[in-house]
Amino acid sequence: MLDDALLQKILIEKAYLSQEDMLQSAQLATQDDVPLQQSLINNNVLTKALLGQAVGEYFGYQYVDLQKQKVDDDIFFQIPESMAVSQQIVAFGKANGTVQVAIVDPTKTEIIDVLEKRFDTSIQVFITLVQDIAYALKRYKKDIKAAYESLLDTISDDTTEDIEADDAVEGLTAHVANLILNNAERNGTSDIHIEPYERKSLVRFRVDGVLSDRLEMDLDMHSRVMTRIKVLSRMRTDEHRAAQDGKFRFVSDAGEAIDVRVSVVPTKYGENVVMRLLSSHGRQFTLTNLGLVGHDLEKVKENIKNPHGMILVTGPTGSGKTTTLYAVMKLLNKRDVNIATIEDPIEYDISGVTQIQVNTKTNLTFAQGLRSIVRQDPDIIMVGEIRDEETAGIGVNSALTGHLVLSTLHTNDAPTSLPRLLDMQVEPFLVASTVNIIIAQRLVRVICASCKASHVITDQEKKILQDNGEREAFLSRIGVSLDNLRLYKGNGCKVCGDTGYAGRIGIFEVMIMDEQMRQLVVNHSDSDSIKAAARQKGMTTMLEDGIRKVLDGVTTLEEVLRVAM
Prior knowledge:
Number of strands: 19
Radius of gyration: 26 Å
Strand content: 15-25%
Helix content: 40-55%
Largest sheet: 7 strands, mixed
CATH superfamily of the largest domain: P-loop containing nucleotide triphosphate hydrolases
């Protein structure tokens, strides 16, 4: 959303409002607890057209009213919903080979660069308003239930021939499977769950880390869809009593190739399937748009320049560890270095990087793959996960012999990673000699830009921030007073499905290894001692990074406490 202060400057400089009128409007917006842009229109201070014209004049772009503009769905749906919501941008048409996009805040030049690569053509930028974007984004929310009912109606009541009926049902099944996959991709879904129960089957999507119900099917359709998914995944369709794993690739309506990792398990009422959706071409990830900023970002960028050693990213499953490693690899990916990875699975393709997929059927494990990679003359090695003693030992020895090794661990925070490596029987002096930096992280949901509103900090929120000495000290250190402090939340709207959130971002804890830290490892010090030493050196914890993002209006205190406590 366009910053209120910048909007005030634009309207005064372009003589759309006087200083006095602007002051009154700003006060009214604060009083109503709504963005200035929305307040100006709601109170008839400016028409939507005049407001759009003013912003367009300032930035040198034309204003487009998305509530009146015809939208080309083939172009529109090529931007995933999660990106459109978080960046407040939509594509609405194409003219003379140039894709036309409308954005609320044109200072976000990075997203334009991303879209030029995505569409592989030039972009024509238009200015639009928050209300227009919210209206346009409703296109993503086409009800999957209504679409499903429409598909069921495609079987004609007068189809009497058995062959015709069989063909119609088979075609319907394929359409239902495609409907589920495409709707999931449009909504930024990471996992699709199709679960059988006694009288029905339930389809659920995990979006921004949270599962929600999307569709009910009868058990006959569930069985047919399961068979379709098994065929696509090259699984045995006659096996219903054993767990099976597989994968397939589909091309979405937006033209994007999506790799789908499939897990099927037998349950009391039938087979349950979970499908993980993975973009096959790699996204335009940077450490900054993942949420790593300020001093922590500088520490990471400086540290990855080391030609050897280990960079570890730690956190629970689904916390974005692999994505962070991909962002680091993109910074390191130059023509004068050889980068090789061993992954399970390969989540995103990176041009110029040799990527190897774990395959237990051929005994290609992380450890075996790592042994093979070392003989491929690599400069940089990425191991998807250090799961066992063997992989840990080979990884540490690779770092000791002149390679830069990137990997992940399952630990709660950065300091705990060092004792964890010792538990894997890696010698303390080897850990101390090789580990350069440890990044711990979690993912928090981002407040929806379309329904974001501020409020004066509540007594409960004050209590949470004041009851802990470390939190109080952190607030004091960054110069924040809780008196009349304004925080933000999403009120819920159609754009975010009434959740108040749209998209996710990381909160981080970056721990640098120095001589004192290395000595603590050699002495078998526990994680509390390591954490205390890191804190003395200025390490910001994940909780503190989360609180900073709360103060910046990125997320809510409730969300940070949910994942970081």
